[in-house]
Each structure stands twice: as structure tokens, then as C-alpha cells.
Automatic annotation (TrEMBL), chain A:
It comes from the Bacteria. This is Amino acid ABC transporter permease. The chain crosses the membrane at residues 20-42, 185-203. Residues 18-206 form the ABC transmembrane type-1 domain. Keywords: Amino-acid transport, Cell membrane, Membrane, Transmembrane, Transmembrane helix, Transport. It holds the Pfam family BPD_transp_1. CDD domains: TM_PBP2. GO terms for cellular component: ATP-binding cassette (ABC) transporter complex. Belongs to the binding-protein-dependent transport system permease family. HisMQ subfamily. It is a multi-pass membrane protein. PANTHER family: L-CYSTINE TRANSPORT SYSTEM PERMEASE PROTEIN TCYL, MEMBRANE COMPONENT OF AMINO ACID ABC TRANSPORTER. It is found in: Cell inner membrane; Cell membrane. Signal peptide: none annotated.
TrEMBL record, chain B:
It comes from Ensifer oleiphilus. Belongs to the ABC transporter superfamily. This is Amino acid ABC transporter ATP-binding protein. It is found in: Cell membrane. Keywords: Amino-acid transport, ATP-binding, Cell membrane, Membrane, Nucleotide-binding, Transport. GO terms for molecular function: ABC-type amino acid transporter activity; ATP binding; ATP hydrolysis activity.
Length: 217, 240
């Protein structure tokens, strides 16, 4: 029969780690998405030339490995005496990282709305804002959703890297238990299962929304 | 009244409108014919300010369209335009497509907008299609929806830009019938079209555009019966 030293309180410890993973992900994806929408709209409105500085900065966030960004940001906040804790630093870095990818998703979504459709909206007397709000936003959202779900799941898993700043999230919690109980395979199995349980509803939500919107297309 | 005075417009080095003068009175139906690239569609998009102009001026009921002080969104609500591509809003039902602008631009109540939308959709023969999504309809039906969508704003002028050119031949008739109905109701219309028979029937005047110039304008009997411009004679010979 299978034996384990894992107790209910160890499981509760893992659950706390999962809660930290969820918190970091929720804050980062929310802030990153809002920033991504803002930057995406700016990129489309300003055109490739004027948005060059923004594009460059976002490219940096997309190109430099996340771990390096986290370590550098942590060192920077310490040198600049910002007094950020590991949670704040992690969320700031992950938000910008998410925003960098989300900007491209948003830009692609907006560009997918045919200019003739937008012209029809404007010809009915709608303002730029009304066109964005009632025509572009819903249509671009439909196009961008699959990529955005992918980004969210990616950020959720990449958030494991914040353990390097000392946050005890799901992966770090598992490592601690592995060190103590010496049952790496079993504990990592549980850890993987928890990641899956978090991801699955998000993926299904995406599938559900796609299906709901598809009869119109 | 739409007054077009010496309007010039270039795209890059290509001058597509070379000084157009045209006045359209209330209740008048003017059709514009001519070959591709003659500038006729560009003129329509200039009239409601979707395209800027390089010289001259366009006045609608005395308001200069391209003046900086003009509120284009307000002006556009009284100039309806329907394009070659019907440009349905694919995420909205037919009813919602038609209700959107009256609600958001004119600030109508949901009830008033819906009443108007149902009236206009019934008018163009789509009373049965209110809850359908546009992509489930034929091109002709979508184009009639686009007409109803423009009409729901209660425009005083309607501009039609080759509204049957992208349709399958068997669907052209239903859209032209809708235009005929509007003309007979006294709507002021400028129609850019390739349908000569239609132009002959509904127009008060027909204008022939050639290479950015309005080469001839006359009532249909005169223009089709005794064309003076040599390019027009060639054009009519080729289209008959």
C-alpha cells in the first residue's frame, strides 16, 4: 500500500502557495491587460513611427528573460530605496511583462477590424470613442481572446519564478515540502495537479466564450 | 441643398477630382455614372467629410463640411451613406445594427430606437429578420439592412456608393427596388451606379464623370438620348 508522510497541514501549506500564485497572477494579468490595452491603442493610433520608443521598451520586456528582469528590478528598487516588498516587485515586473505581450495581442485585434466597417460606423455619426467602444472593442476581443487566454496561462506558470525574490508561491511551497519529506515525485505530482486545476477553468472559460460568440461569425 | 464648388482632391500625385461643381436640390435624385477611377466614389466620401479635400468647398444646408468648426459627427447624422461593401456590424443582430447609431449618436431611448429600427427594416423588407445575425443573410439582405441602418438616423440626404456592385446578379434587383422606393418617397439622393437602366428610371439628372471631371450633366432623356461629350458617347456605347 502507498505510504506518505504528507499531512493535511502540508496540503494546507500547498494551498497557501497556490493562493499566492493566484494573487500574483491576478494582479499582474489585470494590470498588464489594462496597460496592454492602453499601449495597444496608442500603437495603432500613433502609427509605427511615433510609437517607436514605446515599441522598443516593450520589446525589451519581451526579450529579456523574466528571471533576469525580476532580479534586476529587485536590485533596482533596493538601490532606489523604493521600499517595495517582494510581492510588489514581482507584480510590477510581471505586469510589465504581461503588458508587453498584451500590447501586441491588442494591436493585432484592433487591426483585424476591417477599416470599411469602422468607416461605416463613423459615417453614421459615431465618434472615434463610440466606434472604439461599440464596434472595435467587441470585434477585437473576439479575435484576441485565444491569444490572451494563452498569455494568462503562461504568466500563471511563469509566476513561479518569483520564488527567487523569496515569495512562497506554489512551486516554492512544494520545494520546501520536498526538502523536508523527501518525496519529490509525489509532491510534484500534487503541485502539477494544482497548477492544472487553476489553469483548466481559465482555458474552459475561453472555450466557452469562443463558442458563445461563434454563431455570429 | 448640397453645394459642391470647384472641389479638388488628390491621392498622392494622382488627382482624382479636378474641380467639381454640382448643386443638388432638396428632393432631387442625381445619379453619377462613369468608368472606374473617374472620381465618382471619392466625391461621395468627401460630401460627408470622410475624406478631406484639397481645394474648393462643399456645403450641406449652408454648413461647410470641411470647415474646422464643423461638428462632423452631427453633420453625418443627417447625411446617410451606403457603401459597395455593406459593412454590417457582425457581432450585432440586424435589429441591433440598426438601433446602435440612433441610440448612441442621437441619444434616443431604447424603445424609440427599436420602433424606428423595426419600421425601417420592415420598409426594406427585412421585418422577419430582426433577430438574425448579418452573416446568416444574403448580400442583398445585408445591403438592405445597411440602407435601413442609414435611414434610421432620419437623414435628409442619402448617398449611395455603387451599392449593387458587390452583389450577385440575382440580388441586384431587390436592392434597386429599395432605392426606387426611396426615390419615389422624395428622398434627396446621390447615387453612384453602374446600372444604366436604373439611372435612366429614377434620376432627375445624371452626371457623367471622366478622369476627375464632370464631363456632362443633364436629365436622363437628354444624357442617354443625345449625349454630347465624346467620352460619354464611347462610355454608353461600351455599356449597352
Amino acid at each position: 500500500m502507498f505510504n506518505t508522510a504528507l499531512t493535511w497541514s502540508d496540503l494546507a501549506f500547498l494551498a497557501q502557495g497556490a493562493a499566492m500564485t493566484l494573487a500574483v497572477t491576478a494582479v499582474s494579468v489585470t494590470a498588464g491587460t489594462l496597460l496592454g490595452i492602453l499601449f495597444g491603442v496608442i500603437r495603432v493610433q500613433a502609427g509605427p513611427y511615433w510609437s517607436l520608443p514605446l515599441t522598443f521598451v516593450l520589446d525589451v520586456f519581451r526579450s529579456v528573460p523574466l528571471l533576469i528582469q525580476l532580479v534586476l528590478a529587485n536590485a533596482f528598487q533596493s538601490i532606489a530605496k523604493l521600499g517595495w516588498g517582494p510581492f510588489t516587485t514581482s507584480c510590477v515586473v510581471l505586469s510589465l511583462y504581461t503588458a508587453a505581450y498584451c500590447t501586441e495581442i491588442v494591436r493585432g485585434g484592433i487591426s483585424s477590424v476591417p477599416p470599411t466597417t469602422r468607416r461605416a460606423a463613423r459615417s453614421l455619426g459615431m465618434t472615434w470613442w463610440q466606434d472604439m467602444r461599440y464596434i472595435v472593442a467587441p470585434l477585437a476581443t473576439r479575435v484576441s481572446l485565444p491569444s490572451w487566454i494563452g498569455l494568462t496561462l503562461g504568466v500563471m506558470k511563469d509566476s513561479a519564478l518569483v520564488l527567487w525574490l523569496g515569495l512562497i508561491e506554489l512551486l516554492r511551497a512544494s520545494q520546501i515540502l520536498v526538502t523536508r519529506l523527501q518525496e519529490p515525485l509525489f509532491i510534484l505530482l500534487i503541485c502539477g495537479a494544482i497548477y492544472f486545476l487553476i489553469s483548466f477553468p481559465i482555458a474552459r472559460l475561453g472555450g466557452y466564450l469562443e463558442k458563445r460568440w461563434s454563431p455570429n461569425d | 441643398m448640397i453645394e459642391i464648388e470647384n472641389v479638388r482632391k488628390s491621392f498622392g500625385t494622382l488627382e482624382v477630382l479636378k474641380g467639381i461643381d454640382l448643386t443638388v436640390q432638396k428632393g432631387e435624385v442625381v445619379t453619377v455614372i462613369g468608368g472606374s477611377g473617374s472620381g465618382k466614389s471619392t466625391l461621395l466620401t468627401c460630401i460627408n467629410g470622410l475624406e478631406p479635400i484639397d481645394a474648393g468647398r462643399i456645403k450641406v444646408d449652408g454648413t461647410e463640411v470641411h470647415a474646422k468648426s464643423t461638428d462632423l459627427n452631427k453633420l453625418r447624422s443627417k447625411i446617410g451613406i451606403v457603401f459597395q461593401q455593406w459593412n454590417a456590424f457582425p457581432h450585432l443582430t440586424v435589429l441591433e445594427n440598426v438601433m446602435l447609431a440612433p441610440r448612441k449618436v442621437l441619444g434616443q431611448s431604447k424603445q424609440a430606437a427599436e420602433e424606428m429600427a423595426v419600421k425601417q427594416l420592415t420598409h426594406v423588407g427585412l421585418g422577419e429578420k430582426l433577430q438574425v445575425y448579418p452573416n446568416r443573410m444574403s448580400g442583398g439582405q445585408q445591403q438592405r439592412m445597411a440602407i435601413a441602418r442609414a435611414l434610421a438616423m432620419s437623414p435628409e440626404y442619402m448617398l449611395f456608393d455603387e451599392v449593387t456592385s458587390a452583389l450577385d446578379p440575382q440580388l441586384v434587383g431587390e436592392v434597386l427596388d429599395t432605392l426606387r422606393m426611396l426615390a419615389s418617397e422624395g428622398m434627396t439622393m446621390i447615387c453612384v451606379t453602374h446600372e444604366m437602366k436604373f439611372a435612366r428610371e429614377v434620376s432627375d439628372r445624371v452626371a457623367f464623370f471622366h478622369k476627375g471631371v464632370m464631363a456632362e450633366i443633364a436629365p436622363p432623356e437628354a444624357l442617354f438620348g443625345a449625349p454630347k461629350d465624346p467620352e460619354l458617347q464611347k462610355f454608353l456605347a461600351a455599356t449597352h
